Amino acid sequence: MLSLTKKVITVLRFLRLKEYSSNLIGIPFLIWLISPKELLTVKTALVLTANICLTAFTFSFNDIEDAEDDFLDLVKRERNVIANGSLERKWAYLICASLLSTGLAILQFVDPQLTMIAFMLSVNSFLYSWKKIRFKSIPFIDLVSHALAIGIQQLLITYYAFNPLDFRIFPYIGLVTSFSFATQLSQELRDSRIDEVTNVRTTAQILGERNTMILIVIFSLIPTFAALLLPKPLPYLAPIMTPAYLLHLNKRLGLPLKKLL
């Protein structure tokens, strides 16, 4: 029983749910904004489950491809169950394939067109990490690919499931894209030392630390203005979005914002 418990815990660590749970919490909130009558329905449960599976695929596959690099960093080695040997690579690939196929299959029941959208975005998630191409190591493309994988994918799937794609989606895209850019840049700053050792080139390395932090602040300001164009209560939350997000980055990633002063 203990062995089974350890295996379950290892798989849960591999899925890294804690790292993107805040993104997924926003999905029911988005549904409430665009189609409140459908919030407490089976359709909502299906869309949320599909998003969990596809987002978990993105994070889990990234850990497989980063395992060799993460082994060189003690903190990342402890977190990455592939790098520290807790989970065999063959089982990791099987889990990733299961997550992807399950997410796509669920969306097929919701709307076949959603499956195609999700598949194309999942290809981006795959190429973001796959070492033979690795969008995450191509400056500036790394930002776009990250935004598509963590933010835009969840937004498009959820929005299209409950509402035809129209001009009203653009403020939402501006909000999630800006937050995604800021998050990616802050992670690149945090990982700059190990990226140099493993020959990974990122936007943050090209721009330098100070310019990157200025850009993070700028991207963190954009959602405040985007929120003013969205349904209530988001306009009321606009004034606290930027400071709350920057405090979050500082706490989670150790972003040295005081260096800007």
Task: Write structural notes for this entry.
This protein is mainly α and 261 residues long. The protein has two domains: 1-135, Tetracycline Repressor, domain 2 (Orthogonal Bundle); 166-261. It has twelve helices and no strands. α2 (17-34) packs antiparallel against α3 and α5 runs antiparallel to α6.
- Taken in chain order, the helices and strands follow as HHHHHHHHHHHH
Largest sheet: none
Q: What is the overall pLDDT average?
A: 89
**Count of helices?**
12
- Could you say which structural class the secondary elements and strand pairing correspond to? mainly alpha
What is the architecture of the largest domain at the second tier of CATH?
Answer: Orthogonal Bundle
User: Can you tell me the number of structural domains?
Assistant: 2
Q: What coarse outline follows from CA principal-axis ratios?
A: globular
CATH topology of the largest domain: Tetracycline Repressor, domain 2
Instruction: Count every beta strand, where a strand is a DSSP E run of 2 or more residues.
Output: 0
Low-confidence stretches: none
Q: What are its keywords?
A:
single chain; 261 residues; Tetracycline Repressor, domain 2; 0% strand
